[in-house]
């Protein structure tokens, strides 16, 4: 390694910074590899006739940036090799969906070019989630986490004990909780979230006048799913219907032989149920927005094109707020706006 390090005695750049820059350069060109051992502070200072304090300061900067790590009794090792000259961010989501990718894209557009972001998906699985964080907890400057997990019965849980334990090992000044903070991790740098129960209750209340024109309201809520939804959506819907004396029913999917009746209003969550419902409305020659009403959860460009009424959070605000927290290193907790957008289907 000593052949790779360049210390220029005539340079006005401080020697500790030359050490930092030289190690970073050699990692970036592949001369130094992940988990490769580097010389001790004493050995380094002896080789280059530098004071121990100079080398210790350089190693301290490299450790702070998670470029090297120290193991007691063993020495110093390279802990990061990818784009280390930039701020490195782990963006961890529970599933790939249209709206989660929109949040991610708004974040990327706002955060700028001086960062590198790795997007990982843990599929609501606590073991995969825990393994990803355990392997990478020393490799990133910030961790953006969407906490949504599934139980053995394929129902939703915000945070398992195992997942909470792993999250608590991440320094709070590096942690941003996104989308869901029920049973939240205390003192995280940022919280940018939806309030699922009150969001759906308030947005449906916003459209009460139109909703009351229908005879019965259905919530199509998948009871069991590979990617389960928060039950607080169901609670908010039920509370709205009970408070307004509406006839309602909760079903788990749109069945092929489901009988549609004029005066039915459906609130759908999954895209597949929305597609099946629109097909059934057309097949039975009902008029959408008059005979049958539809409100869908989470907006997409296609829903806008088709004139589907939606209840949706503001994905742009969600992604950009997370970026602002990192750019300004500003502790913030924000509930993202959630609105009813009325279109032709209601």
The structural domain count equals 3
Estimated structural class: alpha/beta
| CATH-defined topology of the largest domain | Rossmann fold
The total count of strands amounts to 17
Key attributes of the depicted protein:
346 residues, 37% helix, Rossmann fold, alpha/beta, six-stranded mixed sheet, six-stranded parallel sheet, elongated, Arc Repressor Mutant, subunit A
What would a concise description of this structure say?
By secondary structure, this protein is α/β, with parallel strands linked by helices. The chain has helices at residues 15-28, 41-48, 52-64, 98-111, 126-136, 161-167, 196-206, 208-211, 231-243, 271-283, 301-306, 315-328, and strands spanning 37-38, 68-71, 75-78, 87-93, 115-121, 142-145, 149-150, 156-157, 175-179, 190-193, 216-220, 248-251, 264-268, 292-297, 309-313, 332-335, 338-341.
Q: How is this fold's topology laid out?
A:
Elements: H1 15-28, E1 37-38, H2 41-48, H3 52-64, E2 68-71, E3 75-78, E4 87-93, H4 98-111, E5 115-121, H5 126-136, E6 142-145, E7 149-150, E8 156-157, H6 161-167, E9 175-179, E10 190-193, H7 196-206, H8 208-211, E11 216-220, H9 231-243, E12 248-251, E13 264-268, H10 271-283, E14 292-297, H11 301-306, E15 309-313, H12 315-328, E16 332-335, E17 338-341
Task: Explain what you see.
With 346 residues, the chain is an alpha/beta fold. The protein contains 12 helices and 17 strands. The chain has a 6-stranded parallel β-sheet with strand order 5-4-6-9-10-16, with helices on both faces. A 6-stranded mixed β-sheet has the order 12-11-13-14-15-17, with helices on both faces. A 3-stranded antiparallel β-sheet has the order 1-3-2. Helix 11 links the parallel strand 14 (292-297) and strand 15. Helix 1 (15-28) crosses helix 3 and helix 2 packs across helix 3. The model has no long low-confidence stretch (mean pLDDT 90).
């Amino acid at each position: 390694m000593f052949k790779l390090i360049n210390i220029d005695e005539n340079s006005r750049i401080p020697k500790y910074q030359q050490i930092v820059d030289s190690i970073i350069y050699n990692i970036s060109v592949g001369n130094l590899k992940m988990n490769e051992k580097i010389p001790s502070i004493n050995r380094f200072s002896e080789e280059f006739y530098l004071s121990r304090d100079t080398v210790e300061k350089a190693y301290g900067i490299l450790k702070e940036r998670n470029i090297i790590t120290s193991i007691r009794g063993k020495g110093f090792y390279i802990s990061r090799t990818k784009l280390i000259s930039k701020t490195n961010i782990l963006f961890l989501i529970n599933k790939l969906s249209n709206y989660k990718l929109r949040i991610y894209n708004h974040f990327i557009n706002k955060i700028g070019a001086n960062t590198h972001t790795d997007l990982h998906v843990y599929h609501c699985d606590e073991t995969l989630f825990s393994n990803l964080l355990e392997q990478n907890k020393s490799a990133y400057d910030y961790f953006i986490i969407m906490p949504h997990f599934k139980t053995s019965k394929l129902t939703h849980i915000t945070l398992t004990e195992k997942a909470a334990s792993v999250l608590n090992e991440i320094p709070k000044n590096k942690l941003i909780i996104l989308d869901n903070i029920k049973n939240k991790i205390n003192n995280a740098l940022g919280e940018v979230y939806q309030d699922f129960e009150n969001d759906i209750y308030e947005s449906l209340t916003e459209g009460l006048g139109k909703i009351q024109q229908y005879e019965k309201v259905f919530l199509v809520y998948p009871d069991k799913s590979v990617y389960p939804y928060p039950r607080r959506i169901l609670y908010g819907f039920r509370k709205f219907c009970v408070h307004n004396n509406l006839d309602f029913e909760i079903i788990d999917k749109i069945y092929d032989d489901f009988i549609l009746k004029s005066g039915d209003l459906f609130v759908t969550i999954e895209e597949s149920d929305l597609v099946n419902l629109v097909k059934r409305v057309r097949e039975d020659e009902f008029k959408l927005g008059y005979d049958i009403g539809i409100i869908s959860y989470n907006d997409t460009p296609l829903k806008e094109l088709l004139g589907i009424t939606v209840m949706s959070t503001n994905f742009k605000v969600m992604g950009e707020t997370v970026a602002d927290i990192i750019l300004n290193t500003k502790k913030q907790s924000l509930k993202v706006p959630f609105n009813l957008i009325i279109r032709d289907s209601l």
